[in-house]
Prior knowledge:
- This protein has helices at 5-40, 44-63, 69-89.
- The chain is mainly alpha-helical.
- The relative contact order is 0.12.
Amino acid sequence: xxxxxxxxxxxxxxxxxxxxxxxxxxxxxxxxxxxxxxxxxxxxxxxxxxxxxxxxxxxxxxxxxxxxxxxxxxxxxxxxxxxxxxxxxx
Length: 90
């Protein structure tokens, strides 16, 4: 347990930041799953809108160092490729 006031404050800050980061990552994962289900249904219009939302969330997470920038780029690329496959087929 922390003894100094500074260490106590850091513990309080870490708890609140961890909770916020978990919430943000959960939202990103949920939106990616929604996008995947739309791609599975071959709903091009809705998937395109969802892709824009997911891209925005992932970019913001990378900008605030919630996720690594290469993780963000890799996932956006992967999702874009999946979107392109249903756009080409439909």
